[in-house]
Design a protein that fits this description.
Mean pLDDT: 93
Order of helices and strands: HHHHHHHHHHHHHHHH
Number of strands: 0
Distance between the termini: 31 Å
Strand content: under 5%
Shape: globular
Radius of gyration: 19 Å
Length: 313
């Protein structure tokens, strides 16, 4: 068994933070469990960033019954906010059927259900692909749909560019979805993926977007194509260390984007043998661990425990 995994969950488990320690995400999760979907508009209005809204939305959708979300949407059709919420819920329902494994691990029946939900989401989302206050949120879902419906890297990039133009210049979820949509396993290439990550990297700035280079190296690493020792080689380890170091610059956010980036920095530091940096990131995170990108590591639970031990020393 190798160090990394292409399955949806690591073999060594860990406790994932349900709300990333963010108040509006906690509220959205509670609203989803209670089926009070109408509360989400007010919750989103109180969120501090687009990434906080996105984190709140995805977790509410996971907790809520899809029929309750549809019933709420039916009273507000053609409203861009409602269209985005329901379209994203349909996407998540489709992806739950497909799973997160490689395409060859997904059967024909699962693909049929997956595409059915995504095609419905594409139709529902159309009224939201117009100028409105949180339009980048809609374009983030559109980018994910472009990937899932296999429209190809060019269309994924075009949708991403529309999201940036709508105000998503620093929206990490939008950038992460675009990077996934142009990587090799989704009909793009490693070259396109690395070019995209480096295009949006600025290690002189306290930007969560610097974690994209870490995701790119992880995607290449788990593809099985690089030589043994790739992820801890001097050049790669330095690039990962430079990205992680940007999270200590004044002004690095502590919103969902910051939490997601620190999870990436912690994992990439660990696998590149920069465990001291990984321990600092884990210390800053506390209990705010999420499964992405840790589920790529079969020994994730052990790794997190080791970093916590180092942080406590």
């Amino acid at each position: 068994m190798g160090l990394f995994s292409r399955t949806s969950k690591p073999s060594t488990r860990f406790v994932e933070s349900p709300d990333l320690g963010i108040a509006t995400v906690t509220e959205a999760l509670a609203a989803g469990k209670a089926g009070e979907i109408a509360q989400f508009e007010g919750i989103a209005a109180r969120a501090e960033s687009l990434d906080d809204i996105h984190a709140a939305l995805t977790r509410m959708n996971d907790a809520a019954d899809l029929d309750r979300i549809q019933a709420w949407y039916d009273t507000k059709q053609d409203d861009p906010f409602a269209s985005t919420v329901y379209a994203q819920a349909l996407v998540q329902a489709g992806w739950a059927i497909r799973g997160h494994g490689m395409a060859e691990t997904v059967g024909a029946r699962k693909f049929e259900g997956f595409f059915g939900y995504l095609e419905a989401a594409e139709r529902v989302l159309q009224p939201a692909l117009t100028p409105w206050a949180s339009a980048p949120l809609s374009w983030c879902t559109a980018v994910l749909l472009g990937r899932g419906l296999q429209y190809g890297p060019s269309e994924v990039r075009a949708r991403f560019d529309r999201g940036v133009a709508a105000g998503g210049q620093s929206f990490l979820a939008l950038h992460e979805q675009a990077l996934q949509g142009i990587c090799e396993k989704w009909s793009g290439s490693h070259e396109q993926m690395f070019a995209f990550a480096r295009e949006h990297r600025d290690t002189s700035a306290p930007s969560p977007l610097n974690e994209l280079i870490g995701i790119a190296h992880l995607e290449y690493w788990v593809s099985g194509k690089p030589p043994r020792g790739y992820i801890s080689s001097a050049a790669v380890a330095q690039e990962l260390a430079d990205a992680a170091a940007s999270s200590w610059l004044p002004g690095f956010p502590d919103d969902a984007a910051g939490v997601i980036a620190r999870n990436t920095f912690a994992m990439t530091s660990y696998v590149s043998e920069n465990k001291a940096e990984g321990a600092h990131q884990i210390d800053a995170l506390g209990d705010r661990i999420q499964d992405w990108p840790w589920y790529y590591l079969r020994t994730a639970g052990k790794a997190i425990a080791e970093l916590r031990t180092l942080a406590a020393e």
